[in-house]
C-alpha cells in the first residue's frame, strides 16, 4: 500500500501470478477525500444513533421515575389523609392500600389502630352514659325528698332547717346542671359548651359557693369567708352556673 505523490489517493498493488511466473500487477486506487467523507458519514451516523439511544434511555428513565414516584407518593398521600381523618375523630376511616410492601403493612396497622380507637370510643360513650345515669338518678331522688321536707310532708320545720334544705336543693340543681354539661357525649365530642348568659349577681353566686363549702371547711378546721367589694356592679351578664364552677 502506498500513497500517491498528490496525497489524494491510496493505491494498493498486488501481483497476478501464472504459476510461478508473475504475469501482471493489479492496482486499485482509492480517493482519500471519498474515504474521509465515508468515515465522516459513518461517524455522524454513529453519533445520531448514540444520541437517539441516549434520549430514549433518558425518556424511559423519566417515565419510570414518574411511575415509581406516583406509586410511592400516592399511598403516602392516602396514609397522610387517613391519619388526618382519624386524628379528627372520624374513626370509621379505612385506608385502602392493598400492597405487599412496607406501605401496605403500615396502612393495615393504621386500620387496626382506627378499629381499636373506635372500640375505645364506644367504651367511653358507654361509660359516660352509665355514669350520667347513675349520678342523675340519686340526685333526682335527693331533690324530690328535699321538696317533700320543705313542703312539710314529714312534719313542720323551723326557718334554719328550711334554709339548710334550700341550700341542699339549690346545690343539687347546680350539680345536676353540671352533670348535664360535663357528661353530655355530644358536647364532649364536639368540644362545645353552650353559655346561657343572663343578668347575675356575682356576690350571690360567690356567697352560694361559700355556703356550699362551709361544712367541708369546718370538717378540716378551716375558716372560709366572703368579702365582697361594694363597688362591684350588682349584676353582670354571665352564665351563673359556669361562674359558680370556676369559683
Can you tell me about this structure?
With 247 residues, the chain is mainly alpha-helical. 65% of the residues lie in helices and 12% in strands. It contains six helices and five strands. It has helices at 32-87, 102-150, 159-182, 185-190, 202-219, 240-246, and strands at residues 2-3, 9-18, 21-31, 198-200, 236-238. Strands 1-2-3 form a three-stranded antiparallel beta sheet. It has a two-stranded antiparallel sheet with strand order 4-5. The longest helix is centred in the first third of the chain and has 56 residues, at 32-87. The protein starts with a strand and ends with a helix. The mean pLDDT is 78.
Provide the low-confidence segments as ranges: none
Alpha-carbon distance between the two ends: 116 Å
- Give the strand order, joined by hyphens, for the main sheet: 1-2-3
- Major sheet attributes: 3 strands, antiparallel
As a percent range, the share of helical residues equals 55-70%
Mean pLDDT: 78
So how many helices?
6
Percent strand? 5-15%
Tell me how many strands there are.
5
Write the element-wise H/E pattern from the N-terminal end onward.
EEEHHHHEHEH
Shape: rod-shaped
What Rg is obtained from the alpha carbons, in whole angstroms?
49 Å
Give me the secondary-structure category: mainly alpha
Q: What is shown here, in short?
A:
This protein has 247 residues and is mostly helical.
Amino acid at each position: 500500500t502506498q500513497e500517491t505523490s498528490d496525497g489524494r489517493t491510496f493505491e494498493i498493488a498486488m501481483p497476478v501470478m501464472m504459476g510461478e511466473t508473475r504475469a501482471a500487477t493489479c492496482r486499485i486506487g482509492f480517493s482519500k477525500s471519498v474515504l474521509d467523507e465515508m468515515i465522516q458519514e459513518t461517524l455522524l451516523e454513529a453519533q445520531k444513533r448514540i444520541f437517539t439511544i441516549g434520549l430514549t434511555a433518558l425518556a424511559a428513565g423519566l417515565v419510570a421515575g414518574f411511575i415509581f414516584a406516583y406509586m410511592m407518593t400516592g399511598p403516602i398521600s392516602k396514609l397522610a389523609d387517613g391519619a388526618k381523618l382519624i386524628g379528627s375523630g372520624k374513626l370509621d376511616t379505612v385506608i385502602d392500600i392493598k400492597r405487599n410492601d412496607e406501605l401496605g403493612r403500615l396502612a393495615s396497622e393504621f386500620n387496626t389502630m382506627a378499629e381499636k380507637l373506635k372500640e375505645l370510643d364506644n367504651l367511653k360513650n358507654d361509660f359516660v352514659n352509665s355514669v350520667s345515669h347513675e349520678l342523675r338518678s340519686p340526685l333526682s331522688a335527693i331533690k324530690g325528698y328535699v321538696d317533700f321536707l320543705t313542703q312539710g310532708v314529714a312534719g313542720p320545720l323551723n326557718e334554719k332547717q328550711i334554709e339548710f334544705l334550700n341550700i341542699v336543693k339549690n346545690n343539687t340543681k347546680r350539680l345536676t346542671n353540671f352533670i348535664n354539661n360535663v357528661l353530655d357525649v355530644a358536647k364532649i365530642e364536639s368540644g362545645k359548651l353552650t353559655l346561657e348568659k343572663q343578668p347575675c349577681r356575682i356576690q350571690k353566686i360567690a356567697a352560694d359557693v361559700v355556703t356550699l363549702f362551709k361544712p367541708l371547711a369546718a370538717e378540716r378546721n378551716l375558716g372560709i369567708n366572703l368579702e365582697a367589694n361594694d363597688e362591684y356592679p350588682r349584676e353582670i351578664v354571665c352564665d351563673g352556673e359556669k361562674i359558680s364552677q370556676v369559683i
